[in-house]
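Here is a complete protein record:
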Amino acid sequence: MIALSVVGLGVASYLTYVHYAGINPICTAGTSCIQVQTSQWSRLAGIPVALIGLIGYVAILASLAAPDREATRLATLGLTVTGFGFSAYLTYRELFSIHAVCEWCASSAVIMTLLLAGAIGRYLLGPSGWAPEPADGAGVLDDELAARPGLARR
């Protein structure tokens, strides 16, 4: 997930740079990236959506770098759900309002979808990667019994 976040950060950084530099993005699909990048949907409340994406990827990366706890896994999940929803909305606009697809934007949407899948799995599986962490200290007795073979469970 960290690698995906770094790649997403690179895509969003590039698109943010393109926006503020006032240059056309590199695009193999003709002018579709230019159409998307200059459309009315390329900004939200005057803020470039590329910058919003950049901030989102930084936040996801920060949540992944934080100590692995249920709260940080939930934060990652919340951030990726929000990013996925925003990407889905923007993809809708590309397809049905702009009638052009930016390959950079599409790659970011794929990255965000993969991050969401990873965040769901990470949250559901818990810290060990196999089961949710005990909320009430359950498992402590089992650990103690394993460490002291002379003890028996009643």
About this structure: The two ends are 43 Å apart (CA to CA). Residues 98 and 130 are 44 Å apart (CA to CA).
